[in-house]
């Protein structure tokens, strides 16, 4: 059997991709080396958001009793500001408020990994093949095959990496391993790169850019949208990439990629991207072998992850 899409990783973008691909009637497999849910597991409510705003009420009904079981101290979900903002949009069915309307500070989920896994299976089980606890070992893009740690070989038409923080990090010490696995990859989708926090402080300002991945020997078209929502001033309508941020980003890229070509493509306001869903054009041709997403855990990052997934699937499978 040949899968239309194989997705490595089941976190935020991986879940969004699997859900959209399923909607398009594609044959999908998800390979997850740990537990299904990935970084959705950090914040239980993120699982609901991945499936799109229109389905939140349905998820609310399905999981209402389940959420109550985990209403005890455990893994923190989001900060107060983010919870209030996203709960107003009904993204987080478990956000609780006291009688005065203040957020209950004991908003915790005891076992978010179980919660994320339960929601994921509830939404897509029977429609995709899930390889949980199994690692992707090597991709042969010429033969369109993926070797798993069990020795199983899967065939595919398109393959995505949705492996999250650090898996393809520029600062990672595992370059040899990533080079073996990803050297023949055609498309990459990740939730974040393992960049220094200081670097990310200005990277969130850049809308998209085009650069060269040295250990992949491929070009990449990137959309960093980390933490946009937490860095916006009150009057965000006119908030654009500032000169200082552009200079810092250029300086860092020149140091990191002094031997390789790169170019910052452009920047738009977060307000425009978020409210009007004006996504950058994605050209899935030979010039851009690799597409990388920088998605944070904010509600905005998750919604855009869903939007980008839909756009990519639509372009790859017209």
**Which strand order do you get reading across the main beta sheet?**
5-2-1-8-7-6
Total separate domains: 1
* CATH architecture verdict: 3-Layer(bba) Sandwich
- Write down the overall mean pLDDT: 51
Q: Main sheet?
A: 6 strands, mixed
Helices, by number, come to 10
CATH domain class: Alpha Beta
Number of strands: 12
Q: How far is the first residue's CA from the last residue's CA?
A: 21 Å
Which blocks of ≥5 consecutive residues have pLDDT under 50?
Answer: 41-97, 103-115, 165-304
What is the CATH H-level superfamily? FAD/NAD(P)-binding domain
Polypeptide structure, described:
- With 318 residues, the protein is of the alpha/beta class.
- It has a single domain (2-53, 114-316), classed as 3-Layer(bba) Sandwich (FAD/NAD(P)-binding domain).
- 34% of the residues lie in helices and 20% in strands.
- The protein is built from ten helices and twelve strands.
- The protein has helices at 12-23, 46-50, 56-69, 80-88, 112-124, 175-182, 197-203, 243-256, 270-276, 299-316; strands at residues 2-8, 28-32, 71-76, 108-109, 128-132, 136-140, 145-148, 153-161, 208-213, 218-224, 263-266, 290-294.
- Helix 1 packs across helix 10 (299-316).
- It is globular and about 60 Å long.
- The protein starts with a strand and ends with a helix.
- 40% of the residues are buried.
- The model is unreliable at 41-97, 103-115 and 165-304 (pLDDT under 50).
């Amino acid at each position: 059997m040949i899968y239309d899409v194989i997705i490595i990783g089941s976190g935020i973008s991986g879940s969004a991709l699997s859900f959209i691909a399923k909607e398009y009637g594609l044959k999908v497999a998800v390979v997850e080396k740990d537990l299904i849910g990935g970084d959705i597991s950090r914040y239980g409510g993120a699982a609901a958001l991945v499936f799109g705003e229109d389905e939140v009420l349905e998820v609310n009904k399905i999981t209402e009793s389940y959420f109550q079981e985990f209403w005890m101290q455990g893994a923190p979900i989001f900060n107060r500001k983010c919870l209030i903002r996203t709960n107003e949009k009904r993204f987080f069915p478990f956000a609780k408020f006291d009688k005065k309307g203040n957020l209950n500070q004991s908003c915790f989920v005891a076992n978010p990994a179980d919660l994320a896994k339960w929601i994921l299976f509830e939404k897509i089980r029977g429609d995709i093949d899930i390889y949980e606890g199994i690692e992707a070992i090597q991709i042969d893009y010429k033969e369109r095959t993926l070797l798993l740690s069990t020795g199983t070989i899967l065939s595919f038409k398109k393959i995505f990496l949705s492996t999250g923080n650090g898996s393809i990090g520029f600062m990672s010490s595992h370059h040899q391993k990533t080079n073996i696995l990803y050297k023949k990859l055609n498309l990459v989708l990740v939730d974040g790169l393992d960049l220094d926090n200081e670097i990310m402080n200005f990277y969130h300002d850049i809308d998209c850019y085009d650069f060269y991945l040295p250990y992949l020997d491929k070009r990449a078209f990137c959309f960093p949208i980390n933490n946009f929502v937490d860095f916006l001033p009150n009057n965000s309508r006119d908030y654009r990439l500032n000169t200082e941020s552009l200079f810092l980003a250029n300086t860092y890229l020149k140091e990191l990629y002094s031997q390789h070509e790169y170019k910052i493509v452009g920047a738009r306001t977060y307000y425009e991207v978020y409210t009007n869903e004006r996504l950058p054009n994605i050209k899935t041709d030979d010039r851009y072998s690799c597409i990388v997403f920088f998605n944070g855990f904010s509600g905005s990052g998750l919604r855009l992850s869903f939007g980008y997934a839909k756009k990519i699937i639509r372009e790859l499978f017209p």
